[in-house]
Write a structure and sequence with these properties.
The chain is an all-alpha fold. It contains 11 helices and no strands. Helix 2 crosses helix 3 and helix 2 crosses helix 8.
Length: 274
């Protein structure tokens, strides 16, 4: 297929643009004194970890996208459900695009190619109908026919609305503003920093064939995903922080699950990929 070589050749995705505007404007309501609540902030922090840490980083990324370890199916479904509440699209769509990214990292085919600038790799690419979306399906044959994945892929928006209703019933509008809007914005930008900042700032330990870097402050914000150069060098590894001082909270979670017997066949850098 012909891949667009310039952003001007791509069509705007107005659905995504409008949605992102609504979410970011909604987060601004947290500045109103009536919406300030320490309990609401605690809910936002907790849900940031559940949806961003357990869901996206541990579940969608290391478990499903790269199969760097295995879990019982019920736990896999739970982690994927947590990731669905991050509102980053459906899991099948997300995993397909992520695997596509690794195949073409920082090449013209890469939908968030960092060579096109910080803004583009951070979030600009989402404002367009990128060709990679048409290719993503061929990267998800292992999950595309799973009914649980299909349900979560189709109903991630209603599930978010249901969460908002629950939060409203528990703590009113402050819980909704902080637990949904602020939390979504925070998880979004933390995730996007992995695509942008860790292809620009930091140091490179390995020649991974792209511009990926290890960036400590992104690792802090993303539960260990900031050790991105390590990850691109050893995509199958469940551990991203490879040096003793490269703290990787998600790897600690994998180790905890391993101790409980819930994480098996854990792959590490240096292992033979299978």
């Amino acid at each position: 297929m012909t891949v667009a070589t310039s952003n001007k050749q791509l069509k705007y995705d107005w659905g995504v643009i409008i949605f992102m505007l609504v979410i970011h404007v909604g987060a601004l309501f947290a500045l109103l004194p009536a919406n300030f609540s320490w309990a609401a902030i605690a809910v936002a922090v907790f849900l940031h970890w559940v949806t961003g840490g357990l869901g996206i980083t541990l579940g969608w990324h290391r478990l499903v996208s790269h199969r760097s370890f295995q879990t019982p199916k019920w736990l896999e479904y739970f982690l994927v459900f947590c990731g669905t509440l991050s509102m980053q699209g459906g899991p099948i769509w997300w995993v397909g695009l992520h695997r596509h990214h690794h195949m073409f990292s920082d090449q013209n085919n890469d939908h968030h190619d960092s060579n096109k600038g910080f803004w583009w790799s951070h979030m600009g690419w989402m404002m367009y109908d990128v060709p990679a979306e048409e290719e993503a399906e061929r990267f998800t044959k292992d999950i595309a026919n799973d009914p649980v994945y299909q349900f979560l892929d189709n109903y991630f928006l209603p599930l978010q609305i249901a969460l908002a209703v629950v939060l409203y019933l528990i703590g009113g509008w402050p819980f909704v503003v902080w637990g949904v809007f602020v939390r979504l914005v925070a998880v979004y930008h933390c995730t996007w920093l992995v695509n942008s900042a860790t292809h620009k700032f930091g140091y490179r330990t390995y020649d991974s064939g792209d511009k990926s870097t290890n960036c400590w402050w992104v690792a802090v914000l993303t539960y260990g995903e900031g050790w991105h150069n390590n990850h691109h060098a050893f995509q199958y590894s469940a551990r991203h922080g490879l040096r003793w001082w490269e703290i990787d909270m998600t790897w600690m979670t994998v180790r905890f699950l391993q101790m409980l017997g819930l994480a098996t066949k854990v792959k590490l850098a240096g292992d033979t990929e299978s």
